[in-house]
Design a protein that fits this description.
With about 230 residues, the protein is mostly beta strands. It folds into 2 domains: about 25-190, Trefoil (Acidic Fibroblast Growth Factor, subunit A) (Trefoil); about 190-230, no CATH class. It is about 10% helix and about 40% strand. It has one helix at about 1-25; strands at about 30, 40-45, 50-55, 60-65, 80-85, 90-95, 100-105, 110-115, 120-125, 130-135, 135, 150-155, 155-165, 175-185, 190-195, 205, 220, 225-230. The strands form 4 sheets. Strands 1, 2, 3, 4, 5, 6, 9, 10, 11 and 14 form a 10-stranded antiparallel beta sheet that branches. It starts with a helix and ends with a strand.
Length: about 230
C-alpha cells in the first residue's frame, strides 16, 4: 500500500512538472502586421531574410533559416519593442540576449552595436498599410547627429548598418522591411505585458477564464492580452 501511495505521488509530481513545462513553452506563429505595440514581439524580414542578433564588422546580420510556426519567442531573430505607440518610436531589444540586448547606432557613424537600455537608440517605424516600413534612427539633436535608417551593407549582402537618410529613399525602394508579429497559437494573445502598460479599467481573468477582482502575483488575461502582475 505504501509503495502504491509513493508511486501515485510520484506520478502526480511528474504530471505536474510536465504540465508546467508545457505551459512555459508558449507556441507562437508569425502574422504580418501594420501596427506596432509596446512590449510585443516581432520578426523583421526583407527578401526572405530576417534580422538576427549577430553583429559582424559592426553590421547587423540576417538569416534565411527561421521558423514561421511554433516559435518560442526567444529565437535570435525575435525582437521586443519598448517605447511610444503614438509616435511608433521604440528601442529594439533582442529576445535572445540576456544582457546589453538593445540595438544601438554610434553617433555620426553607420556602425551598430549592443548596449544597455539607458544608452539604446530609439528607432522610428514608418509603417504603411501593407506592413512595409523604414526603420529610422530617432535624432535627439539635429545639429550634432544624423537621420539614419537600417539599410543594406550592399545589395547582395543582407546585413545592415545605419546609413544616412537621403532623398529618394522611400517604401518603394529595396530598403523597406516587412514586420511580422508573434501570435500565441493557443490563445490568440500576442505577448505578455507588464501591468504598467495595461488598461486598468478592463476586467481581469485568470488563465482558466474565471473573473478575478483582486489579482495576486502571476499571469492573467486583461484586454485580450496576457498581463504579468508582480
Amino acid at each position: 500500500m505504501k509503495h502504491f501511495k509513493k508511486l501515485s505521488q510520484l506520478t502526480m509530481a511528474v504530471t505536474l512538472m510536465l504540465t508546467m513545462a508545457a505551459q512555459a513553452q508558449t507556441p507562437y506563429k508569425l502574422e504580418q502586421t501594420n501596427h506596432l505595440t509596446h512590449g510585443h514581439l516581432y520578426v523583421m524580414e526583407q527578401d526572405g531574410y530576417v534580422m538576427t542578433n549577430g553583429i559582424s564588422n559592426k553590421a547587423l546580420q540576417t538569416t534565411n533559416n527561421y521558423l514561421t510556426e511554433e516559435l518560442s519567442g526567444t529565437e535570435p531573430y525575435v525582437w521586443q519593442l519598448e517605447g511610444d505607440d503614438d509616435t511608433q518610436t521604440y528601442k529594439l531589444a533582442n529576445a535572445n540576449r540576456s544582457t546589453s540586448s538593445y540595438l544601438t547606432n554610434v553617433s555620426s557613424k553607420a556602425d551598430l552595436e549592443w548596449n544597455s537600455s539607458s544608452k539604446a537608440t530609439k528607432w522610428t517605424f514608418t509603417l504603411q498599410d501593407d506592413g512595409q516600413t523604414f526603420i529610422i534612427k530617432n535624432v535627439l539633436n539635429e545639429a550634432t547627429d544624423y537621420w539614419r535608417f537600417l539599410g543594406f551593407v550592399s545589395q547582395t549582402n543582407h546585413s545592415y548598418k545605419a546609413y544616412v537618410h537621403q532623398e529618394g529613399y522611400d517604401h518603394t525602394t529595396p530598403y523597406s522591411i516587412t514586420i511580422y508579429e508573434l501570435i500565441d497559437t493557443s490563445t490568440g494573445i500576442t505577448s505578455i505585458q507588464d501591468t504598467s502598460s495595461a488598461t486598468e479599467q478592463q476586467p481581469c481573468y485568470n488563465l482558466a477564464g474565471q473573473p478575478v477582482s483582486r489579482p495576486s502575483k502571476g499571469i492573467y488575461i486583461k484586454g485580450h492580452r496576457k498581463v504579468n502582475y508582480k
